[in-house]
Amino acid sequence: PVSVYPNQQIASVTVAARIAHLIRTKHQKGETAVLGLATGVTPIAVYKELVRLHKEEGLSFKNVVTFNLDEYYPMKPDAMQSYVTFMNENLFNHIDIEKQNIHIPDGTLAMDDIASFCLDYERKITELGGLDLQILGIGRTGHIGFNEPGSAPNSGTRLVTLDDLTRRDASRDFGGKENVPTKAITMGIGTIFKAREIILMAWNKKKAPIIKKAVEGEISGDVPATYLQLSEHVEFVLDQDAASDLT
Ligand code: F6R
Fold first, then answer.
1. Has 148 been annotated as catalytic?
2. pLDDT on residue 99
3. Would 247 be classed as within a structural domain?
4. What is the ipTM of this complex?
5. Which residue stretches, if any, does this entry annotate as coiled coil (predicted)?
């Protein structure tokens, strides 16, 4: 289903409330909430609201385990552009999550160690009972995570090559496209698909054309997000601008 909100703030507060509800419900049952998280500008207001719920409304993250979708490769965790830095600054530094419950693909691995790291990432998710909820943004290539055009629907966590458009869109953060890593480690489409609930968020006119393709276009590896049409557990959460090309 597609949900259209008047603006991204209202949409983000709604998504944050769903996450909080999941965490509290699991807590009451003495269970762990397993969250799949995204970086980028899209989820920032969701994380801001989660921080507010923690500080002002007693939401605890003690029973939360997180798996981030992706990280650039190579990337040092303390670099300004790393997704580790992003998550710490926008969420983890401001809540009571246990550090050992945070998982983000490791951008410092030796090439030879990547395959086993990726298998281990999948195994950890499975051992915890799978992702309860996966949050997604969407890139202008139609990527989810860093699953660029050509990604297989059953792909797992792996090293990928970033699309030129993705590197161009990231160039501002890196002071030029030439400084953007050419690779990343990302959860696969198959990894994302196994989540019990998937929420893809998109805001602004800039995302309207790719949202039209993702929601209404032919299902194809050319636009990886179209695979989400095959899942019954997906909700597209949009602001009016991102939804403006939908028929
Ligand atoms: C980030 C990720 C990407 C972004 C997408 C949109 O972890 O996996 O798929 O969600 O590139 O980025 P923004 O939100 O910056 O427009």
1. yes
2. 98
3. no
4. 0.99
5. none
